[in-house]
Amino acid sequence: MTDVATSAPLGSQDTGIVHVVGARPNFVKAAPVVSALRGRGAHQSVVHTGQHYDDRMSAVFFRDLGLPTPDVDLGVGSGSHAAQTAALMVGLEKEFTERRPGMVVVYGDVNSTVAAALVAAKLCVPVAHVEAGLRSFDNTMPEEVNRRVTDQLSDLCFATSPEAIGHLAAEGVPTDRVHLVGNPMIDTLLANLDRFDADALRTRLDLPERYVAATLHRPANVDDPDTAALLAKRLHEIADQVDVVMPVHPRGKAAFERAGLGDHPRVHLLEPLGYLDFVALVRGSAAVVTDSGGVQEETTILGVPCLTLRPNTERPVTITHGTNQLVTEADLLQTVTKVLHGQTPERVGSAPPLWDGHAGERIATILTQWSR
User: Fold this and answer.
1) How many Å apart are CA 251 and CA 64, to the nearest integer?
2) Domain spanning 17-183+355-370: which superfamily?
3) What is the pLDDT of residue 253?
4) Which of 174, 239, 243, 302 is the most exposed place for a label (fewest CB within 10 A)?
């Protein structure tokens, strides 16, 4: 295997900065960073691992966000955590050895993120982690393991919120590696605000005027058939008072089909949506029921009530500064009813610090300065 040099200036090797993305949240976070670096003339390339491989979960996001066509698509696909991560590492080792990057930039907390960080670290290639320091303190979540490992291996940790800096400090990450830059996912949101047309989406998909949007895919909510059936029952109860619109993630599709989720006449099940359509759906909703981290952030800026069906969140800033609240299956119906009647927690102050649409520029500036 060819050694990868680390002393040469970033950008002096074949591909300079290599962005590794694999799942739809990565694409949304990477877009403003790639754009800002392009504006600085950086030599960069994009490696798509293919962790999300369906067009509706992947290619449509590149088109919506104006991301360049990936220089390579590893096409890893799905599998168990061990099998998928192993395949990712094998493919990424080959790419990094051939491309000889000066820096690998990883995003979020999916298996592609930790696989790229592990491979780069073993090849002595510097790693930058966008969205570092988020913690749910729930190790039953695979993402939590990925976050912790990635942050320990990263030379640059880009934090989206102040509490993330405290988590990194508590874990012994040197302060000179950590930078509070804001949230690049919000950059993408703000840059596309006038493209999220909820009225047009309602007309095109024949949706009702008032609805609750739902999106559920985490293992704790969809892997156990009994849990999925109970959640389907709760969503039916919500649909007794307001229509429920749910783009069904491939991960939970079979479980919710078995549970008869679509049997209620006011439950509208959709195929996965592209970025613009999905955010338009969220923007036009009366409330969102979700277990997604990114949706917690997007609703915070859009001002849409967000009910997160989880016992914890790695994004507490969306509760203190946003519209998010944690709910259980037992109190979901009651909480939705309160929200529909205008009873929502008061927002604390303004949006989270630095969620202003310029995180990508801050990250690009630090990356280019760090390389000198």
Assistant:
1) 23
2) Glycogen Phosphorylase B; (3.40.50.2000)
3) 87
4) 174
